[in-house]
Amino acid sequence: MDPGALALLVDIIDAGNLSEAARRLKMTRANVSYHLSQLERAVGLQLVRRTTRRLEPTDAGLRLYQHGLGIQNEMQAARESITALGQSLQGRVRLNVPSGFGQTVMAPWLIEFKLQYPGIVLDVMFENRVEDLLSDEVDIAIRIMSEPPPQLVAREMGPVRYVACASRGYAQAKGLPAQVDDLRGVPVVTSNVVGRQLRISAYREDQRHVLTLEPTLVSENFVFLRHAVLAGIGVGILPDYVVQDDVQRGEVLTALDDWHLRIFGDRMFMLYMPNRHHTRATATFIDYVLARARAALVVAATMAS
Q1: Which end of the chain is more exposed for a tag (fewer CB within 10 A), N or C?
Q2: Are 39 and 127 members of one domain?
Q3: Statement to judge: residues 101 and 51 lie in one domain
Q4: How many Cβ atoms from other residues are within 10 Å of residue 147's Cβ?
Q5: 276/141 same-domain check
Q6: Helix 59-83 vs helix 3-15: angle between axes, to the nearest 10 degrees?
Q7: Following DSSP, what letter does each residue of 98-161 receive, concatenated?
Q8: By residue range, what is the domain housing residue 209?
Q9: What DSSP string describes 12-79?
Q10: Could you give the C-alpha distances from 143 to 135, 242, 266, 291, in angstroms and in order?
Q11: Domain boundary residue among 46, 61, 83?
Q12: Rounded to two decimals, what is the model's pTM?
């Protein structure tokens, strides 16, 4: 079987549809469709199933995809082993990180990594949703969730704690919520899907409260939400890392500290596709970020004690 045909099948399935595959391969859609039909005719089986939104591999197609992916990975590893001889580490890492964690916590890590490995190109997207690591052409995604998707490799980076917080001026003028139910009567600043109500869970020992709130200010940009809290717009329900420096300076006060608040999830994960060959650049980046995350956990534990 032609290895080039297997490589084409891998590219088509990774792209999700013929038009995207044609764009990535710099071929016409008709040409991609023709080569796919030729491969299916050669093996005598249907390899992909066309739905209204994308192409899905059949059982036969998935088996050939895995073989083709293995061949591509071995070829990439061979090229890298030759390229790396006598050269500094090079390559590209495509990363998708949450806006809040990315800008407030990971930004210094990324800059330090880039200074240490100038030959590696970092392609960083700050956003809070990744539906499909393949279609979004992302190598690594960082996400807050309770349970990671089973189809992805998930490396836990640590817990995430949400806090109820407000500026010192707001607290002095209007007070802070003393009970979880008090959140119903205050203007809430938080991240949520626009146009939907906010569902928040609060836990303390054997107690559990579930509240449905209508925030006064909603955004996926946590830097903006931090400024809104500092301006005294309302009570923020935010990950603690967003306001931790403001809390340490006394500019922001926290409430309900004996409660565990949860909105989207309580753990941070690094996610990437299984069976995808990691370049030396990507593998180095993964190890670097996980080491920084472990070090940050140690520092947080020391400060808490």
Answers
A1: C
A2: no
A3: no
A4: 9
A5: yes
A6: 110
A7: -HHHIIIIIHHHHHHHHHH-TTEEEEEEE-S--S-TTTTT-SEEEEEESS--TTSEEEEEEE--
A8: 162-262
A9: HHHHSSHHHHHHHHT--HHHHHHHHHHHHHHHTS--EEE-SS-EEE-HHHHHHHHHHHHHHHHHHHHH
A10: 17, 15, 10, 17
A11: 83
A12: 0.65
- The encoded tokens of residue 125 equal 């997207």
What are the structure tokens assigned to 162, written together?
């949400």
* Tens digit of pLDDT at every position of the chain (305 positions): 666 777 888 888 888 888 888 888 888 888 888 888 888 888 888 888 877 677 888 888 888 888 777 777 766 665 665 555 445 678 889 999 988 888 888 999 999 999 988 989 999 988 876 565 555 678 898 988 888 888 788 899 888 889 999 999 999 999 999 999 999 999 999 987 545 667 888 898 888 888 888 889 988 888 899 999 999 999 999 998 899 889 999 999 999 999 998 887 788 899 888 766 678 888 889 999 988 888 777 555 444 44
Q: Write the burial class of residue 301 (CB in 10 Å: 0-12 exposed, 13-18 middle, 19+ buried).
A: exposed
Amino acid (one-letter) located at 237: I
